[in-house]
Amino acid sequence: MAKQKKQPRPKAITPKGFRDYFGTEVTERAEMLQKIAGVYHRYGFDALESSAVETVEALGKFLPDVDRPNEGVFAWQEDDAKEGQDWLALRYDLTAPLARVFAQYRNDLPTPYRRYAMGPVWRNEKPGPGRFRQFYQCDADTVGTSSMAADAEICAMLADCLEEVGIPRGDYVIRVNNRKVLEGVLEAVDLANVSNPNGPPDYYDDMGEWQANILRTIDKFDKVGEQGVRDLLGEGRKDASGAFIDGIGLSDAQSEPVVAFLTSKGVNNAETLQNLSSAVGSSEIGYEGIRELEEIIALLNAQNYQADRIIIDPSVVRGLGYYTGPVYEAELTFEITDDKGRPRQFGSVAGGGRYDDLVRRFTGQEVPATGVSIGVDRLLSALHAKGRMDQTAKGPVVVTVMDRSRMADYQAMVAELRTAGIRAEVYLGNPKNFGNQLKYADKRNSPAAVIQGSDEHDKGIIQIKDLILGAKIAENATYEEWKERPSQFEVPRDQLVAKIREILDGQD
């Protein structure tokens, strides 16, 4: 009989595009989510926790490629004799589940329905530096109202969230634009009379593609500037490598409304609105978008959210193809240093807008909605970059074990500390080597260690070692300073909690 081949051991590696989070990282995220949830709750939003798995049919247009249901998402096909074959997928974002939930429970939910949701989402996309296939989103949405007050409220709430988590006023700006204004600009372009080597587009068949090309060009404004956009709208331009990029083929007159739109930002919101009015020409939908922006700004001013926090900015164009009205983006304005030592602005940490087609796919009726999504991981990175997060969180106080037969006494000590609200644990490894216990405490970043051998127990005392102070003294203290400020001392057993609290207060 042939010898059975031994199965190889599995490799202990994290799947590509995913990562593991430890201790402080998990705690920091949880604390930030709690702060943001507090703001959402204060604004009257209710929590919603929907399924992490949705049918691909429910995800629908929210998928990156609806023709390939397993492209862009982690999907699998289920085979059920009763239900037939169906595709399921891990949720791609938190918006598509909201559409399904509202459509499913609309008769039981209040209208408007105000909900917030927090949790991981999954995208089956090519990973890269800082780009993972699983990440957290933190959303708040209002479904069932077309009032611009809902959009103004989202902007105000977003500003409050940033300040609540530690981004001070002056280090961020909420930028607001409107999809309808851009539609007015596209109307002013007059695409039906485009002159192009490939011939003019058929107005009904190709207009969507041409508008998409213009949107993609607009999206490059921050990178290529005004002249670069003019070139790409026209015949084309050479990129940084010298390669020629074909343009769309618009004339100078047709390009002018787009350029006017992108360069319409004024010294204040009133001037920007005036410039946008010129950019949209006689477009009715363009003026409708401007009136909505005017209303949003007026409502924000009434709540004392001025232009130092929230501004109208036509350069906010990302995702405009998805939205149907106002859009907003939170940008951090301070500088950080990149991997090559170059200064750059941190950039966007949140975005959202109005998307009135949210529930139509399920009900056949238009249901107005607006919302925002905050990038929690991006916010945490920003706070770390500014040195506003404690890089090393304190571990628990460690009660060492000097006598195995007295484990009950040591457990009584940690129980006292925990009852007093102090994080503590008993060393549960092999207590034979006391040095290893202190090494464990150091690795746990413990602020203090409690020591009580048989002699100390008989005398009714304990030894307390201030590990943080001890490390500082070991680094740079003289012998005289070490004698003056000893890092280990004895106290009566009944003063355990009081002395530990004193040490912790002194380390803060």
From TrEMBL:
Molecular function, one GO term: histidine-tRNA ligase activity
InterPro entries: aa-tRNA-synth_II, aa-tRNA-synth_II/BPL/LPL, Anticodon-bd, Anticodon-bd_dom_sf, His-tRNA-ligase, HisRS-like_core, HisRS/HisZ, HisRS_anticodon
Domain Aminoacyl-transfer RNA synthetases class-II family profile: 1-396
Domain of life according to the entry: Bacteria
Record EC number: 6.1.1.21
A Pfam cross-reference name: tRNA-synt_His
Entry similarity comment: Belongs to the class-II aminoacyl-tRNA synthetase family.
Record text on subunit structure and interactions: Homodimer.
NCBIfam families: hisS (TIGR00442)
Record's protein name: Histidine--tRNA ligase
Organism: Parasulfitobacter algicola
